Amino acid sequence: MTTQERIERSYEPGAYAAQARGWIETNLTDALRTDRATQEASLAEKIAFEAAQHEAGLVGITWPVEYGGHGLGLREHLEANREIGLSPMPNAVNSIGKELAGPIIMTVGRDDQKRDLLPKILKMENIWCQGFSEPGAGSDLVALRTRAEKTADGWKVNGQKIWTSGASKSQYCLLLARTGSADDRHKGLMLFAVPMESPGIDVREIVSIDGARSFCEVFFNNVMVAEENMLGAPDEGWAAASRVLSIERATNRMYRSWRFESEIDHLVAACRSDNRTYQILKGYSAEIAQARIAVENLKGHVETMVADLLNGQQIGPRGSLPKLYWSEAHQRWAQMAYEVTTRFPLDGGQALTDARARFETIYLASRAETIYAGTTEIQLDIISKRILNLKKAA
């Protein structure tokens, strides 16, 4: 079925999910599955798999056709995300490009930027990283000090970014830099699309607790950025960055609720494969029940937000609610699941070996879930001030 045929047909509940499910079942190889303790797929294999997802209609679902998308709606997006979550697919290589850079370019970018940059994100020709956090400006983003100075040849950027996921394999950086005084806080901030091959950019990988090398420090030493690489108008950086974070916390990564559910199902199924581990699991029945409840609450958050968006409502600060709830609940679950796997007998079968490997990885990665995309403290502050309208204590 062509993209145009999909656009012209009326929405049929479940039809897009069936299409997505069938494609995943056919194309998800053992090397790509996160629930198998096999040799992990290479970066090139993951990139090819992601590009194929776009061709199959699992990525860029709501993006306009003229920019490489499929021109469909949030209902199809939600259906595909359910299937992605329920499958043991690897995390996206280009999540920053598809979930953050792409939406912000569509919001504030010029027409020529949209035509040039957006299709290449979906085709996996350009991988993006996000240059927001700094050593002294993580959750307090307006404290950033990376500067962009106007010159006759464009903008000269100097500064340092940290925890820049995927920078060492990216072609572009969505960079937030300060053009005014550091005292201006929300003013004088600008977004740029910076080619990572630009002279003066120094990327240094950081080895994380799980042995991965995804996080990076990025240094900008007199990096010249062309005027045409500005995203949005001068002084629009903070408003655009806020939109990015709102997007990240709300409609993006809808699959998390269903991935959470599939992890619970995986652990239960693995424990049932051996009577000894099934007896161990029975001791955690209350914790598993709480995790099941958390999953259903998260699904409700996501589905309510989709319904509100379809009715023309804005999400705004409400995007902090599912982000806060998911990160706290999933972190508790990951710790419990890992604890269970540490009690597995050493002579267990392949199902236990697979589960042990998966949940160790999930546990280690989960330690950052209450930090990235805004810490728990930041989410609570947003909820208290912008949703509950509470005032600071005297």
TrEMBL record:
Superkingdom of the organism of origin: Bacteria
InterPro entries hit by this protein: Acyl-CoA_Oxase/DH_mid-dom (IPR006091), Acyl-CoA_Oxase/DH_mid-dom_sf (IPR046373), AcylCo_DH-like_C (IPR036250), AcylCo_DH/oxidase_C (IPR009075), AcylCoA_DH/ox_N (IPR013786), AcylCoA_DH/ox_N_sf (IPR037069), AcylCoA_DH/oxidase_NM_dom_sf (IPR009100), Mycobact_Acyl-CoA_DH (IPR052161)
One GO MF term: flavin adenine dinucleotide binding
GO CC term, one of those recorded: plasma membrane
Cofactor: FAD
Acyl-CoA dehydrogenase/oxidase C-terminal domain span: 235-388
Pfam families for the chain: Acyl-CoA_dh_1, Acyl-CoA_dh_M, Acyl-CoA_dh_N
Domain Acyl-CoA oxidase/dehydrogenase middle as annotated: residue spans: 129-223
Name the UniProt record assigns to this protein: Alkylation response protein AidB-like acyl-CoA dehydrogenase
Annotated source species: Sagittula marina
